[in-house]
Amino acid sequence: MERPKFGELLAYARPGGTVHISEMFRLVRGTGHILDVLDVLHRDQVALRIHDGAFSAMDLTARHPRTGELLSTVKFMVQTLAAAGELQRELTYDGLRAAEDKGNKGGRRPAVPADKSDAVRTAYLEGRSIAALAREHGVSRGAIRTAVAGLLPEYTAADPGAPAPELPVVLDMPGKVADFLRNTDLEPAERATLDQGVTVRRGQGYTLRVSAVPAVHRGLLARCQPLDGSQDLPAVPAQRKARREYENRVSALTP
């Protein structure tokens, strides 16, 4: 009865008005409060309309014509239903505590399971986009953003002492380099970067437009080192030129 918001409600209500609530326990918590609230509302000539639950079928305005008190039958039903609701809440609370003791967490299960969240976060740091991860795991982009929330720029910017994660950078990879890398043993993040690249035709050849963090670009550049030639594999001028062109683009990413 001393809750500030309840006092604001009573101050706002006018005689003849009606207070609408979804169900009784949005307004009160214990059985001892219900009758008090009904008395206060009746005193201020304010009606109460409950839309859901057992109380929605009851006429809470039925009072004795001489004393003005709630009818005994109404009191009995209100107290009985309130006690049942209180018992249900206690059982629910006990059930939640028992589940927490077993390591289970209440609420909706995350769209990205806990056993996959680490892999999603690692893939994001390696340059995978949120859209690509959402397609791969069959969930919404919002679910991926939730899984990598602590890694997003808007979250890390608030902590000036935390190192900012590298952001994906789009580079055009010469087609001859891309063809060589496709036949090379790559890390999963590197392979995914190639698979998600967009082919851009240029005359008789093409470039592969890829998006990845600088670390992945540098890793791919290291993989195509054999294109410069070796004792066992002579260099092909066109391939060497393509590799050096890609090297210049990757080197420009270094501050």
Walkthrough of the structure:
- By secondary structure, the chain is mostly helical.
- Helix 2 links the parallel strand 1 and strand 2 (47-50).
- The protein has eleven helices and five strands.
- The strands form two sheets. It has a three-stranded antiparallel sheet.
What secondary-structure arrangement, pairings included, does this model have?
Layout: H1 4-12, E1 18-21, H2 31-43, E2 47-50, H3 72-101, H4 114-125, H5 130-137, H6 141-147, H7 153-156, E3 169-174, H8 175-182, H9 188-195, E4 198-202, E5 205-212, H10 214-223, H11 237-251
Parallel strand pairs: 1-2
Antiparallel strand pairs: 3-5, 4-5
**N-to-C series of helices and strands:** HEHEHHHHHEHHEEHH
Order of the strands making up the biggest sheet:
3-5-4
Mean pLDDT figure: 78
Low-confidence stretches: none
Strand content: 5-15%
Helix content, binned percent: 40-55%
Beta strand count:
5
- Terminal residue distance: 64 Å
Alpha-beta content class: mainly alpha
How would you sum up this structure in a few lines?
This protein is mostly helical.
Offer a few descriptive terms.
single chain, about 260 residues, mainly alpha, 11 helices, 5 strands, rod-shaped
